[in-house]
Every structure is written in C-alpha cells, then in structure tokens.
Design brief:
about 325 residues; about 20% helix; alpha/beta; six-stranded mixed β-sheet
C-alpha cells in the first residue's frame, strides 16, 4: 500500500502493511528533550448530533502542536440516520446531513473537518490510522460499501501530506524509534472492541480476556463501550541469556478510550442511553507520551551509579485527554 512521503515537519514515517499492520518509524536526532506523542481516540461518532466536536477539534489541534500521531480505533462515524436504519431519528439528524445522498454528505463533511487547516498544516497530517468500528462494519454489511475506506480516500484527496490509512477492526501498530544508530520498538495491539462493557465492570473483564490470547504486545488499546480506563496487566516470564537465568516480572498497559458522543444529556429526552438507564459516559481520549530513559551501572569513581553509555530505553506515560 503506497504512502506519500511525509511533510518536512513530520518526524515520523508510516508504512501500512495491509489493513492490520501499520509500521511507524520515528527518528530522534538527539535524545535530549526527545519525545513522541500519540493521540489515541475512539468512538467519535463524528456525524452524530451528540458528538462533542468542540472537544474533538481541541484535541486534534493539540496533536498538530505536539506533532502527535493520531490513532483512531473505530466508530469514527455514527451512520445511524439513513432511511433504512430502524434506529434513525429525525431529531438526531444534523441539518447539514439532511439530503437524499445522506452517506455522501457524511463522508464529505467529515473529510472537510479532518482536513481543515491549522498552524500552517492540516489536522489530517497527524492522522495515521482510522480503524473500523461496529458502526462502519454494520454499514458495510447492509450497503456493501466501506465507510472507513471512503473516509480515508476523501481525506487523502484533500490532504496530500497525510499518511493516513484505513485499518481493520483489529490489528497492530508497530513503532520503531531510532536514535544514535540504535533502535527501540513498541507494539500496540488495537481492537475496536467486542464486549458490552457492563454498567458495573465498565469493560474491566476484557483485560484478562484479551491477555489470554494476545502475545508480544506492549500495550492493548480498545474502545467501543464508551468507558475510559488505564489499567495494568501484570505478567511473569523466564529469561535466559548466555547460560544464566532469571525470572522477569512486568506489566503491560491496557487502555480503553472513552468517546466524543454525549448522548446522555442529563437523562433528558429519548434515546438508547437514556431509555436503558446507562448513565453518563466519560468523554475524551487518551494521550500516550514516549520519551527516552537511561540505564545505570554501579561502580563509579566512588562506588555510585554511572550511566551506561549508549544504553537507553523507552519511557511510556498514558494520560487522559479531556
């Protein structure tokens, strides 16, 4: 899948190896002050009347300011107001989408939003992945037309510098960091999500479920239930090197993104969330910050710690984006 060269301001280069594997190369000319931000988002439901576009736009502008990589985990589009959809409601339809060619209007309006200029660039210059969610897969199943591919194609037409690619319902984002002729890597296993979450557990059981069959992922990232969570999934493994053995204990973050769709609206009116008593859902996304860390060796001039030259690792912080 061919990808255009990134703009001069971009510090990352993307190779979409099909719909499920996305490789991102990040070059750090210096480790001093180096960092790479990722905006991890899901369930924007951008065309919904309940989408908090003000929050969505604020986060995308921050992504441009930070030269962040934007990963979208699906349900970017809502697509519930077509005339053949039993869930459709005239009161939930944005006025700009009231047209016979409803789907075309959704794609055109969304692509113009994501490709709008800001800070001498376009918002979509930062967007790397738009994965498929259950709303997009439902449209594909009923209409034989993939909304994800259509949206990505429309954004590329408006934003020639974007390295955006259409993702699957689940897959891998493999990050490769290069500095001082050495490399470090980090793998994110993404999935839109498949459980109902649960009012009491808020999707916490998915941590154990997914860790029972996923191997060699440094992070698992999901959305779908409109819950928000940053949790640790601990693990233990036996490590052998040059004939020596040790037991290594660590943990991998499990990250569930919230939503930009505020359909609770104080419990007023009609709708799925209100009528089922689902309560309010956390609004927003997640920030992931990568930065270099250093390993130290004992036995300096006075028996203290000295930094091992050329030895650096990756530090990872996961923060709420509100």
């Amino acid at each position: 899948m061919a990808v255009k060269s990134p703009s001069a301001q971009s510090a990352f280069r993307v190779n979409h190896v099909g719909r499920q594997i996305h490789v991102i190369d990040i070059n750090w000319p210096s480790l001093t002050g180096a960092e790479q931000w990722i905006l991890l988002r899901s369930d924007a439901h951008h065309d919904s009347k309940h989408c908090r576009r003000d929050m969505e736009l604020r986060h995308l502008k921050q992504a441009v300011d930070r030269n962040a990589i934007v990963l979208d985990l699906g349900d970017t589009l809502d697509l519930m107001q077509g005339k053949s959809d039993k869930r459709s409601s005239k009161s939930s339809l944005r006025s700009g989408l009231l047209a016979t060619n409803y789907f075309d209007r959704v794609i055109a309006e969304a692509s113009e939003f994501y490709a709008q200029p800001y800070g001498g660039r376009q918002l979509s210059d930062q967007i790397v992945l738009v994965a498929q969610g259950n709303h997009e897969s439902a449209w594909l199943s009923h209409h034989e037309c993939c909304p994800t591919e259509n949206l990505v194609r429309a954004i590329k037409g408006l934003s020639p510098n974007s390295q955006i690619g259409a993702g699957a319902y689940g897959g891998y984002v493999h990050l490769r960091f290069k500095a001082h002729n050495t490399h470090r890597s980090y793998t994110i296993r993404y999935a839109h999500g498949c459980s109902n979450g649960g009012q009491m557990t808020m999707g916490a059981l998915d941590i154990r479920r997914m860790n029972s069959w996923i191997r060699n992922a440094d992070m698992i990232a999901v959305g779908h239930t409109h819950d928000s969570m940053i949790a640790a999934a601990p693990w233990e493994q036996l490590v052998t090197q040059n004939g020596s053995y040790r037991i290594e204990i660590g943990e991998s973050p499990f990250v569930r993104c919230g939503t930009y769709k505020d359909e609770w609206t104080g419990g007023q009116g009609m709708g799925w969330a209100v009528e089922r008593g689902m309560g309010p859902k956390p609004l927003g996304a997640k920030w992931i910050r990568f930065y270099p860390t250093y390993e130290y060796a004992h036995g300096g001039a006075h028996g203290g710690k000295t930094r091992a030259r050329g030895v650096w690792g990756l530090g990872v912080d996961v923060l709420d984006a509100k």
